[in-house]
Task: structure prediction
Amino acid sequence: MKNKYSIFSLIKNAFSYHENWEKAWKDPEPKKEYDAVIVGGGGHGLATAYYLAKKHNIKNIAVVEKGWIGGGNTGRNTTIIRSNYLWDASAGLYDHALKIWEGLSQELNYNIMFSQRGVMNLAHNLQDVRDLKRRTHANRLNGIDAVYLNTEEVKKFCPIINTSQEIRYPVLGGTLQRRAGTARHDAVAWGYARGADEMGVDIIQNCEVKGIKRNGDTVEGIETTKGFIKTKKIGVVAAGHSSVIANMAGLKLPLESKPLQALVSEPVKPIIDTVVMSNAVHAYVSQSDKGELVIGAGTDDYVSYSQKGSHDIVEGTLNAILELYPIFSRMRMLRQWGGIVDICPDASPIVSKTSIKGLYFNCGWGTGGFKATPGSGDLFAHTIANDEPHKLNAAFNINRFVSGDLVDEHGAAAVAH
Amino acid sequence: MFLINCPFCGEREQSEFKAGGEAHIIRPKQPTELSDDEWAEYLFMRKNIKGVQFERWNHVHGCRKWFNMIRDTSNDQIKAIYKMGEKPPVK
Result:
């Protein structure tokens, strides 16, 4: 049993100069065989292992990660959490996640710094206004909090926005989801890792999958850089590298992997206490607890695994940011980076069984997977444990590309993909 | 961002171009005969290779012509560029 984190453990460890904190998770070598192996130690993968152990009583689980946990897109995203999606299937999926977020720090005994500071989506043209109003109504029918704001109300909620109607893309209105917000992305991975480790999950870092062993239509195990691991159930949660793993199993997925960039500024005093997203000009911004502005740019439109994006994409985003927030004109940017996101043709994820028995994929989250981390883990664990999807992820099966029953969130998700 | 040697205009910045996805996907000769699985394969399934990949590109802010490219997606290095209808210079 791990020591509980509390004010008392903090005081106790202060006396030993914080040098004797127990390790949050072990660093084991892989065993020969597991009941289930999760490929990918990001937030979604660790959450999957956590819920498999917690809710489905499968304890003999390994999470294999080619780098370090949370080092991929979990540590590269802009930490926005919201559930104001248009379609019923998406609303169910993302709001399931949001409900778990609301109690997650307590459940994990790990402060994930979840902050319901609200997310505002701006409208810049008449079609935006219509789309956002429609989405607001759809959200409310699905029990998701959403309000439509006119230009004055937008200005009141976030005073630093330039609401002049003279700019190239004037603010005509916006939507607000107050339950939405941000969380500390690293802490999410670390919290789930600590919780999973406590229940006996082996978290194996620096262990890259090199092959998937099949016997006919059934999986037998995985080849890794640390040797062969036998297992009957493989859950792949490899984000941008999902197609690479799928190719090992002889599967093709409807994915394209593209670079997505983000950047942060130098830290400044609190200036923006919410998250503001703008689909039409592709600019979104929030402020971290350290004081940095966190800015998300768009994807490059070519396939790349280079974890680098193009400068013109960043330039376009910053142009839009400066027009909307003239106050930032003299801010200096501190860091810029890229992650590789796997995008489905309908911009919705795949959380599904496959044609190969024992092989499950959780992928296609594209540019917006972080917000779904707890829900994705919970539903994927259900799918793996029961060999059947939960009703909330049934629509996100891989066969929708054959049946045509797509969940088209391209325009509907309130942000461009 | 990288430079692309358009076969019609010469070397230009990548931002002048639009990526058109995987190349050499052949349109079904008899669309009415296709099963749903075959349609899904044609429309949606992609190799999405990490490594050397065959792609289509369009010089959308230039001559607006399409051409093919062989590019290593792990480091964005271009291996070859050839016109539509031409045989790939390497396998």
In short: Chain A touches chain B at residues 241, 243-244, 247, 252-257, 301-306, 308, 310-312, 342, 345, 401-404 (CB under 8 Å). The CA atoms of residues 120 and 198 of chain A lie 38 Å apart.
